[in-house]
Design goal:
Distance between the termini: 32 Å
Number of helices: 4
Shape: globular
Low-confidence stretches: 1-45, 297-302
Strand content: 35-45%
Structural class: mainly beta
Helix content: 10-25%
Radius of gyration: 22 Å
Number of domains: 2
Number of strands: 16
Largest sheet: 9 strands, mixed
Order of helices and strands: HHEEEEEEEEEEEEEEHEEH
Mean pLDDT: 81
C-alpha cells in the first residue's frame, strides 16, 4: 500500500491540540449543575483570540496549519485561517511561498529541508506578523521496532520500542516519536539522549492491562494496525514539546516558539523515518526479559 507522505503529514501535524481555556475547572461545574431544573447563566470571560501555527519542513516539503482559538462558550474550539501569507526562507537564500490547499492548511513541495540549514517561517494575517526559526537535523535510521510488556504489581504495561542509529552520538540528540493506531495519532513522546553504543532506545508507553479499567479506550485490540514515525528535531522544538507535555497536564499554554506573543504552536525542521505498520496481537506480546533473551539467542545463532 502506497502512502502519500505529504497527505499523511498534514493529518498528523496537529496531533498536539492546543487549547486556550479562560476558565479552569468549568467542566466539573457543568456536570454538577446538569441535573438541576433551574437554568443557570454562566458568566464566561471573553478573551482575545490567539493564532495557532503548527508548521514543519522536512526532506518531503513544508506544511503549515493555521487556526484561531475561540472562547470556551463557542461550539468550535479552533477556526481555520484561510487568508494568511506564509513564507519559508533559509540561510542559504531560498524563499518559498506556501499555498492554501485546504481549510487552514498551507503547503509546498518546492522547498525541502537540507541538513544543517536554518529555516525561518513568516506568517502574516493583515497587520499580524509572527516568525519562528528551526535548524534542519541530520539523517538517521530505525534499526529495530517491537512491542513488549512489563509487569507492574498486578498489572501489565505495554510499550512500543524503537532503536535509532546512524547519527552522530557525540552530541545530544532530540527525538519526537509518534505511534499511530489504524492510521490515526495514538501516543507520542519526546526524548533527549546522547546515544549509548551508537544507538538510542526509545520506549513509548501505550496502555495498561488492568482489571479495574477494562473499558480503557487506549487498550489495543487484536488486528489493529500500529505504526511509528520518529523525527530528529532541534532543541527549540524539543523545549516547546516538553513544555506542551507539561501544559497538557496543568491546563495551561506551553512556552512561546514564535516571535509574536499572541501565537501558539511551533515550527520544526526535522528528518523523519517511518516504520511499516504491524498488526497488534495480545498473545504475541512477550515480557521484556523473555524478549531480550530470545533476541540474544537469535543473535548467537547467526
Amino acid at each position: 500500500m502506497k502512502i502519500n507522505m505529504m497527505k499523511f503529514y498534514k493529518e498528523i501535524i496537529s496531533v498536539n491540540t492546543i487549547k486556550k481555556l479562560p476558565l479552569g475547572g468549568l467542566g466539573g461545574l457543568l456536570l454538577l449543575f446538569s441535573s438541576c431544573e433551574k437554568e443557570i447563566d454562566m458568566d464566561y470571560h471573553t478573551v482575545e483570540p490567539l493564532y495557532v501555527v503548527e508548521a514543519g519542513i522536512s526532506e518531503e516539503g513544508a506544511v503549515a496549519r493555521i487556526s484561531q482559538t475561540q472562547n470556551v462558550s463557542d461550539e468550535i474550539g479552533k477556526s481555520p485561517v484561510n487568508d494568511a501569507q506564509v513564507v519559508i526562507t533559509s540561510n542559504n537564500g531560498e524563499r518559498c511561498i506556501l499555498k492554501l490547499d485546504s481549510a487552514g492548511c498551507y503547503s509546498s513541495s518546492e522547498i525541502k529541508g537540507v541538513e544543517g540549514r536554518e529555516y525561518t517561517i513568516r506568517v502574516q494575517i493583515g497587520d499580524y506578523v509572527t516568525e519562528s526559526t528551526s535548524q534542519m537535523q541530520e539523517q538517521f535510521s530505525i534499526d529495530d521496532t517491537y512491542m513488549y510488556k512489563v509487569q507492574m504489581l498486578e498489572d501489565e504495561v505495554v510499550y512500543y520500542h524503537v532503536d535509532v542509529t546512524g547519527y552522530n552520538t557525540d552530541t545530544i540528540g532530540y527525538f519526537y516519536t509518534l505511534v499511530t493506531r489504524n492510521g490515526k495519532p495514538y501516543k507520542w513522546s519526546i526524548l533527549d539522549n546522547k546515544g549509548f553504543d551508537d544507538m538510542t532506545a526509545i520506549n513509548v508507553g501505550c496502555f495498561v492491562y488492568c482489571d479495574l479499567d477494562k473499558d480503557n479506550k487506549d487498550i489495543l485490540k487484536d488486528g489493529e494496525e500500529i505504526a511509528v514515525e520518529v523525527r530528529k528535531i532541534d532543541k527549540r522544538t524539543y523545549d516547546y514539546l516538553y513544555a506542551l507535555f507539561i501544559a497538557e497536564r496543568s491546563s495551561s499554554n506551553p512556552i512561546r516558539n514564535f516571535t509574536n506573543p499572541s501565537t501558539l504552536g511551533y515550527f520544526s525542521a526535522y528528518h523523519s523515518m517511518r516504520q511499516n505498520a504491524l498488526r497488534f496481537s495480545k498473545e504475541s506480546l512477550e515480557f521484556y526479559d523473555d524478549l531480550m533473551e530470545s533476541k540474544k539467542h537469535k543473535f548467537e545463532e547467526r
